[in-house]
Amino acid sequence: MRSLSENRPAGWSANQNSLMLNKPDAGLATDPDAGTGTCGLDGEAVKALLQGAVLKGRDPLVILRGASIDPLVYGNADAAIDGRSLVRLVRQIQSSIDDVYLGFLGQGCRLALETERMLSFLHCATFGEALRVSIRFTDAMSTDVGPWIEEEHGSGLQHICKYHTIAGVERDILVWIRFVWIYQMFSWLIGRPLALRGVSVKGSRPVQANGFDRFALFGCPVTFNAPVDALCYSWSDLTVRLVHGSISEYEEYYSSEPDWFASPGHGLSWHEKTQQVLIDLQKAGLGSAPIEVVAARLRTRPRRLRHDLALEGHSFQDIRTRLRGELASAYLLASDVPITAIGLVLGFSEPGSFSRKFFAWAGMTPSAYRAEYIADPVKVAAATALLKERRIS
User: Fold this and answer.
1) How much is the pTM?
2) Which of 52, 88, 103, 159 could bond 231 through an S-S bridge, CB–CB 3.0 to 4.6 Å?
3) How far apart are CA 360 and CA 369, in angstroms?
4) Confidence of residue 265 (pLDDT cuts 50, 70, 90)
5) β 222-223/198-200 pair status
C-alpha cells in the first residue's frame, strides 16, 4: 500500500491541512498559455491580426503586452499563441481602437454598437431567429459588411459574409477570425457546438511552419478558393433554443477567456460535462468544488447549470457526491491513507462530516468499508484503476 505522501494530488501543500491549487504567475511567462508556445496561431498570423491597429498608429508590442502575450511572438513564425491568448489579443485590439473589426474596414464598428447588436438577438428563442436578427443588425452597422443567408441546394442554410477591407491588411485573416467568433459565439448561445455542414473561403489554405490548422476547430469540410466566404449551418440547428439570454452572461463568457481553438462543449450532455469538470478538479486537488467554480468552467451560470441538469434528470449535488464517494472508496481500498487525511483530500474539514457523508453514500462508515472489502481482489483492482485514471498515484 502507498503512504499519504505518495498519494497527494497535484497542488497538495505539505505545510497546511488543506489543499492549495498551484497557480501560474501572472504576466509574461514563457509557457504556451502566455503566448510563446510553438503550437497554435503563429507569430506571422498574429502580426496580420494587428495590421489594422498598426495602420491607425497603435504600437503592436504595447497591444501584445496588454493582452499578456510576449511581444517576441510578433511576426515570429517559430512562436505561437493558444486559443485563450487569441481571445485576449482580439479583445485588446478591439478596445485599443474601439472597433469590432480590428481596423480592417474603412467604416468600422464601435464596441458600444456591438453591444446593441448582441442585445438585439439575445432575447430570441432559437438559433435560427437569432441568426436572422443578427444579420439584419450587422447589415445596418457598416456598408463594408454585407452578410446574407440563402439555402444551399436544400442541404443547409448558407451564411455568406462580405468584408470590404482597406489596403494594407490581409483580408483572409479577418474572414477567419470573424468565422471563429461567429462559430464560438453561437455555439455558446445554444450550449453545444454548431453542427456545421461546411465552411467556404475565397482565400487559399493557410500554411504555418508549425503545422497548426486554423480551420480544424470547425469540425467540418472546408473549401478553399471558393466563390464566397460562408458558413453552412445544419437545418436541425436552426430550431435549437438559446440557453443564454443576457449581456452579463456574454461578458462573463469573454472574461473567462474561452479557448477559441477548442470545439465548444464537445457535444456532451450537461451531466457529462459537469462530471468531467469535477473529475478534472479532483485531479487538480480540489475535491469539493462548488457549483460556481464548475459553472464558470462550463461558461454558464450556476442557476442555468442546475436547470439544465434537472432537465436531464440529474442534480449537481448528486453528481459531486457520487464522484467523491467513488474516490473515497478507492483511497480506502488502494492505499493506507488514514481516514482523516482522505476526508481532507476530498474537501471535508471535519472527520465527522466525511464519515457521515460516506455513510450516506455507501451505507457504512469508512472504517467499516475498508475492513469489509480490503481483501476483495476485484474491488481493490477497481479502486487501484480509478486512482490511476484520476492521476492520483
Assistant:
1) 0.61
2) 159
3) 12
4) low
5) parallel
Q: Report how far apart, in Å, the C-alpha atoms of 95 and of each of 41, 56, 91, 181, 322 are.
A: 21, 13, 6, 16, 45
Domain count for the chain: 2
Determine the structural domain holding residue 209 and report its residue range. 32-249
Q: From the CB of residue 216, how many other CB atoms can be counted at a distance below 10 Å? A: 11
Q: Which amino acid is at 3?
A: S
How many residues make up the chain in this entry? Answer: 393
Shared-domain flag, residues 104 and 244 = yes
**Are 234 and 273 members of one domain?**
no
Task: Report pLDDT digits (tens) over 30-74.
Answer: 333 344 445 799 999 999 999 999 999 999 999 999 999 999 999
CATH for 312: 1.10.10.60
